[in-house]
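Thread: Newbie trying to understand structure tokens

Hi all, I'm a second-year student working on a class project, and my supervisor (Dr. K.) asked me to get a predicted structure for one chain before our next meeting. I've only ever worked with sequences, so writing a 3D structure as a token string is new to me. If someone could post the tokens and maybe explain what I'm looking at, I'd be very grateful. Here's the chain:
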Amino acid sequence: MASLCFCSSPQLGQVLTSPLWWYLHEASAHSQCPLCVGYSPGAPQLPPQACCGMVWSANTHLGMCVPPGVQYGQLGTDVTLSCPGIRASSAVRWRRAGTTALPEGSAIQQGSLVLPSASQALGGTYSCHGKDGSLLHTVSLRLGHLPGVPFVSCRASDYENFSCSWTSSVETFLPTRYITTYRKKSLTGEEKRRNKNGHVGLCLQDPSRPGTCTVHRSEFWSSYRLNITEVNPLGFSYRLLDVTMQAIIKPDPPEGLVVEPIPLAPRRLHVSWKYPSSWPKEPHFQLRFRLQYRPIIHRSWSVIETVNLSEVITDAFAGLEHVVQVSAKDFLDAGNWSEWSAEARATPVRDLASTASEETTTDARLESLAEEPSQAPNPEPINGSDPMEKMAVLVSLGIFAFFILAAVLVITILIWLRVRKHGKDKTKPSFLVAATHLKALPKAQIL
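---
Reply by user tm_fold:
Sure, no problem. This is what the structure looks like when written as tokens:
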């Protein structure tokens, strides 16, 4: 169980110089605050005279320095304003600045003003007066809510440091500050000997970046427990978050993205980039990269993964402008991909063959247009020939086609008859051929 403690520590007092200290301790319910961690708010240093009053949160040991004459109250509850320095039986009159009457439902009990179910409209300046009307005390009432459990997320942009950011879950309407500490969950033997009560350190807040803190010199293979505590004059609320460096590592986007067309290569683009400046270049902590690209007229992306700092796109569309982005991730796949880098654009060179063909066609069209004389507009149709002339042409074409078909048919019949006759001669018996030959010879030759 986590508890907040206010501890006096001479050793811490020697180290810290702010007049206002908040101390945070995470321990069991039975511990008597054996360990204290000093914390100085990120606000400017307060001079000693500024801390002229302390408001202690109910049921806690957490104090806030507030100016005198200010009282905080919780919305929706009964708020009691006291008039110090008078007896309970003394007659006291209360007034509210800017009005002639007290809020409806308010009551004076033993010299104190009670405001039931206080709403935001009841905030303001109240004063108590004696019997003779003399001013006894003035108090400024500020109303709000108890802090809610903050929303916390952590991210490491490199393997040496990690940062956490938070937002409040409740709008309190009151001045709010945050205590941010961490503890290493697993300690080595040497660390246990040096820090008998465990290592608790500050997650340092940067005034220029509200809502964030950074743990420096963290260890990549270690786990940490973050305690983000939201404090206002009414109380506090905290969130404990266990952090593993491998899980929260998320590099910054790569830098220096350059995309260039490749001469004489109409479908290729050369892409190069650099490591993010926040990522130390060490041989055992490398990054891998993811490249996405598309023509500007398309919506879908093509993606390439690589471990190099340059890549050649081989399937680009010639003559179309392309959009390219790159992101990074730990080489061993720890954590998450970075955000995409800023866009870079380039257009591949056009295909020389198609370019020459288009230029030739264009030149021919221009020449033909130049040779033709200009004509005045003619309202008549361009193809305004006589219908009888069209009919005569069709008849002539039909007659010509008929004669062509007839000639082809005659030639085909003649060829068929010749082939048939030649086939019959080959089928005659050999003795008939010889008899025919003898019959044709003179008788003298036969004898």
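A couple of things are worth pointing out once you decode it. The chain has a mean pLDDT of 75. The longest strand covers residues 135-144. Feel free to ask follow-ups in this thread.
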